[in-house]
Amino acid sequence: MPIETIENTWITLADGRRLAARLWLPDAGPAPAILEYLPYRKRDGTAARDETTHTVFAEASYACIRVDIAGTGDSEGQFDDEYSEQELRDGEEVLAWIAAQDWCDGNVGMIGISWGGFNGLQLAFRQPPALKAVVSVASTVDRYADDIHFMGGCLLSDNMNWGSQMFAYLTRPADPDLRADWREDWLARLQNIPFSAAHWLRHQTRDSYWRHGSACEDWSAIQVPVLAITGWADAYVNAPPALAANLRAPNKAVIGPWEHRYPHISKLDPADFHSEVIGWFDRWLKGQENGAEDLPAYRTYMQEHFDPTPRNGPRQGRWIAEASWPSPYVNEQVWHLVSGGFSQNPSCDSIAVASPCHLGMQSGYFCAGMRIDNELAGDQSSDDTLSACFDSAPLDAPLELLGRAKLKFQFSVDKPVAQLVARLCDVSPDGVSQRISYRSLNLCHYLSHETPQALQPGEIYEAEIALNECAHRLREGHMLRLALSTSYWPIVWPAPQPAEVTLYLQDCALQLPVREVTHEIQASEPGPAQAFPVLAAEQLRPPSAQSERSVTDDGQVVLETFDDYGKTRDPYHDLIVGSDVRMHYSIHPDDPTTACFETAWNFTFERADWQVAIATECRMTCDAQNFYLYRKLRATEGADETEALTKEWFETVPRGLL
């Protein structure tokens, strides 16, 4: 179907601010609309990806619209925070505006991955009249438990990493071709960028800040149909099964062998994302009786052992389906921990867990799909040797796990703040260890994420770790390994002092979600990715990436990465954009206060005689009492790099119980 693309139009909000939008309109009359609402810049940031999605949806008779959140891209106003009240209130106005346009029939759906997946659920939670269906990819239903800031009450280093990335993103100017006031607006943006990483870090417990925007606060509030999708290489694996288990509105969950990308552009195993989306919206926006509601509640890719490597590559496994979720065909098996292994009966032994701070160097990038390559978890064997491991005997029959394994344990500590990280691994007969799932717990949160408390050394406590969702088949002859550690760098920021955790095995057990393999239903899995349009951008500098590990003379273990995202010219408006990022992680195995994260982003923008360059630097370090956060930007104009603004920020945040 012929479509019309409108590069920019303005949505004027009630307070006079204008949000910038790009439109893809089908040739035939009023149509249902699909909104994607992001801070990542429609003009350049997501332009290549948008070409592969909204063009296809428009050809399927949907009016598609990509809107820049206030204070980002070409939109007016000031950005304040992720998923803020301003963002969601503006989103409600945008939905109402779309529904009132003559090219829309009044029915609007939302789609998005990560940020757009989050605010799709969050806006559905608010029940705006025009919103009739959602496709949410790689999102969360609990902003404290399952986002990029904290895991099990432990601080994720990606809180600073992501804050640094958003800092760099927010420095980018509006396009002068669209905004005559671009320079005034740009300087205001640069002066007023929120120090998000510090702000998030101050909210160390599950308080009202994190409850805002968390769908799990009231499952009944979401009353429109939701299709939830993610991939096993992604960080956001817990939301689709949680939605399938708790939503009352029509919903389906799909988890494939993908990273943090839309499935059709996955670098692991690209799949037909378009048909899934169009089928869902055809049912709930167009009213077509296509059987979307009759699909299995949960379709997923049951992975098997493959040679784990940080490099992108295909997975091993097969698609399965469960008609309902939770499934009656998944039952709990209890494996009691004994020294070095498992038993049907408890043991009276105890075991101490104390790990070097650099354990976790095979963990991979927290959210694979954000870098160019070298970001997946590798062979866990080297990390396993530094952990307390519990191994099964070689399996005499295959074992399928589907759901969240739980570790229940009794423990004491020798420090008031300590962590425990649990990894579940599939160990092949030749000793290659593949991570199936993992999860960390700040032991101060053993009772509550709302009201943690310092631990009393020597006192005995009980706790539980529900590992992240998984779907994994262990072959006959393989071993199941539970690896426990008190550190997991660089994913988890370490506790302030080296700690020893003593486990009392009498009350330690692994509860496994074991799936019966005697039943199988039609999986209706996504097929291979179909052909889709690609933005015909002119490549002026090719992308490249590298990662390097080293040990300094004083024993610091260092991971350094570089991603050059290249430089391209957009074919529609001739904007030339280049970017790259360096990251540095370092820590001494014996001293958690040596943990350091540094990053540097560079952006360049140019067209004809207009040029802008922005360089940002960020660093986070710590001692036993505080976190120290630093950031700097330098923005220049013109070929002679005339300085527009240079500014530095310093923040000190008390550690509390982190």
Descriptive report:
Helix 4 runs antiparallel to helix 6 (196-202). With 658 residues, the chain is mainly beta. It folds into three domains: 3-143 and 215-322, Alpha/Beta hydrolase fold, catalytic domain (Rossmann fold, 3-Layer(aba) Sandwich); 159-211 and 537-658, no CATH class; 330-515, Galactose-binding domain-like (Jelly Rolls, Sandwich), CATH 2.60.120.260. The chain has ten helices and 33 strands. The N and C termini lie far apart (56 Å). The longest helix has 15 residues, at 85-99. It is globular. Strands 1, 2, 3, 4, 5, 6, 9, 10, 11, 12, 17 and 22 form a twelve-stranded mixed beta sheet that branches.
